[in-house]
Amino acid sequence: MAAKVGDIEFDRRQIIGWGPNGTVVLRGRLNGAQQPVAVKRYLTKQLKWNASEFELYRKEDHHNILRLYDVTSDQSGFT
Question: Which GO terms describe its cellular component (predicted)?
């Protein structure tokens, strides 16, 4: 089941991991690029707890830290 939110395309069946509080990590692509990216889906109600995590990842540029490219929401209550 392919989905597109903003510039991110992903398949909800391609789960590559799980996180705390119901987060799911999926395989995806940014802007149709061949390089795969990880798509971490949060319940929207968790956003205020994770805002600092998003901001930290957005500012970091280090080879040992995942790079955050985008944060977006969809109609199903996930970000």
Answer: IRE1-TRAF2-ASK1 complex
